[in-house]
Amino acid sequence: MDKLLITGGQPLAGELRISGAKNAALPILAATLLSDKPVSVGNIPHLHDITTTLELLGQMGVDLMVDEKMNIEVNANHINKFEAPYELVKTMRASILVLGPLLARFGEAHVSLPGGCAIGTRPVDIHIDSLIKMGANIQVEAGYIHATAKRLIGCHLLLDKVTVTGTENILMAAALADGVTIIENAAKEPEVTDLAHFLNKMGAKITGIGSDILTVEGVERLGVENLRYEILPDRIETGTYLVAGAITRGRVKLKNTDPRILDAVLVKLREAGADIECGDTWIELNMHGKRPKAVNIRTAPYPAFPTDMQAQFTALNSVADGIGLITETVFENRFMHVQELLRMGAQIKLESNTAICSGAEHLTAAPVMATDLRASASLVLAGLVAQGETLVDRIYHIDRGYDHIEEKLTQLGATIRRVPN
Q1: Which of 117, 155, 278, 357 is the catalytic position?
Q2: d(C-alpha 268, C-alpha 366), whole Å
Q3: pLDDT tens digits along 386-413
Q4: Is-above-0.85 flag for pTM?
Q5: What pairs with residue 212 in β-bridges?
Q6: Is 117 among the catalytic positions?
């Protein structure tokens, strides 16, 4: 199991190209199961979760062609297996996203209850209850969801809570359902919007995209000739590298990204003292060598501050000037990185779902262990400013969500390398 060895103290400077969004690529790859024509998807990030998804599709009988730039052509016309086995998907929550497409197009799905990061309860009840309301027969036995349906029926669904994967699963299922499906309290994240646009490109009839009420008029079939779709940029990767620039008092320019989907993060970075300039596809951050200021943050569903950026800003507040409060409202166990930051000299006090950070003048390198995807990013950020050599263990979490993180940080001037266990 590899580790990352980081020597801190160097302000970052330079330019980076941002990868495609993992959280858009995974549902869109699942949605290709709905098409009766080959589909080409571009701007796919090179990540472990993507590899797992491709392996899952391949095991079902999907024909896949991947080129050297990670453009993927998917042909789901020869599928002969409707199962997502536990052995393959135990580390990846997004596996649940094949449930809706398999059921809608093929009338059958056997999907393992998902795994992923241990950051809190993420129940699939909303997925299951919604599909049952659409006419599916579903049993949950021995860790698997067994679902069948002759054809799903459109209906009015009011979701109990905002759920990204729940909205995506229902959206895909409704695209081939008989009649109209209305999804109220739908998630509005850019990745959900990207999926909806992709489905419409395949011939779906979805309106209300970008709002919390989605209306889906079911169609008989999906698929168009020569469809090519580009995944939107990864806003969390973008935000992470912006924080890397801010925490090291440096200057970074990120290309192939979209400032419009990062408003809440950019507001907080400006509050932290960063000068930020934006174009249509780029963002530049400059700290002018200044120590960041502490900021207060409260996570909530989009367009509010994203929970996936909370750990990175906890690291930023650890060395910022002043006291910052970070309140986590989305996942109850998402402060596991705090214990590791304390080992590096951070001054953080946890009270219920709030982390009170008193910025330290500096952090000290220590061996630390990643507990989930975004927590691991926060430890890398802390290592960039810590005195000495920080060793980050269990970085398989990082590889699930960051495309060659050590190479990109090296490109910005960081001293970081991957070392074997």
Answers
A1: 117
A2: 28
A3: 999 999 998 888 888 898 999 999 999 9
A4: yes
A5: none
A6: yes
